[in-house]
Amino acid sequence: MFKLIIVEDENKTRSALLSCLPWESLGITEVGEASNGVQALEWIKRERPHLVITDIRMPEMDGLELVGRIREAYPHTGVIILSAYSDIPYLKSAIKYNAVDYLFKPVDPEELEQAISRALDRVRVSSQMSRVHGVLEEHLPLLREQWLKAIVNGVKIGDAEWEN
Questions:
Q1: Would you say 84 and 64 are in contact if contact means Cβ atoms under 8 Å apart?
Q2: What is the CA radius of gyration of the chain?
Q3: Are 64 and 82 in contact (CB under 8 A)?
């Protein structure tokens, strides 16, 4: 149902994250992994995950640059940031990029599971809103035409009809 990628340059941490949660019971059917932002971006372009869990400090492309690129190309993708640092600039960047959460290492599996649940809830809502927006855009010309015809013909439109 959902795809996720874990981006972490430390092999032990990445392995621990991959094995610490019952992914399928969370509704995640595919879990990818990458050791830096460059690898992650390639995987993201190919697989279009719903959620990205990323470290901040990594070689080649750090987590903040990765999140910035994700926001530009895939604005509905959920992001959880992991860090061993509690620096205010990192926290501000997480807020700027609308991260679902900013978790400190070592990561508590319960806290991570809660963050993933919140992220997937956001992804579901965003997906529903996109579908509604698409339907509205598709039908808007017809609605405008009917509304203008009603005005030109002097038809009174009641409150219930306006809501519909």
A1: no
A2: 21
A3: no
Q: Residues 77, 97, 14, CA angle at the centre, nearest 5°?
A: 65
How far is C-alpha 129 from the chain's CA centre?
Answer: 13
Print burial letters for 37-50: b (CB count within 10 Å at least 16), e (below 16): bebbbebbeeeebb
Indicate if the pLDDT at residue 76 is higher than 80: yes
Structure token pair of residue 37: 């932002």
- Peptide bond before residue 106 is cis, with ω within 30 degrees of 0: yes
Count how many Cα atoms sit within 13 Å of the Cα of residue 118 in the half-sphere of its side chain.
14
**84 touches 105 (CB < 8 A):** yes
As a whole number of angstroms, the distance between CA 17 and CA 32 comes to: 11
Per DSSP, 78 falls in state E
Tokens of 26: 């969370």
CA 164 to chain centroid, in Å, comes to 31
Asked whether the predicted pLDDT for residue 164 surpasses 80, the reply is: no
Could you read off the pLDDT of 96-141 as tens digits, one per residue? 877 888 899 999 999 999 999 999 888 888 766 767 666 667 777 7
Given the structure tokens 């035409």, which residue do they identify? 145
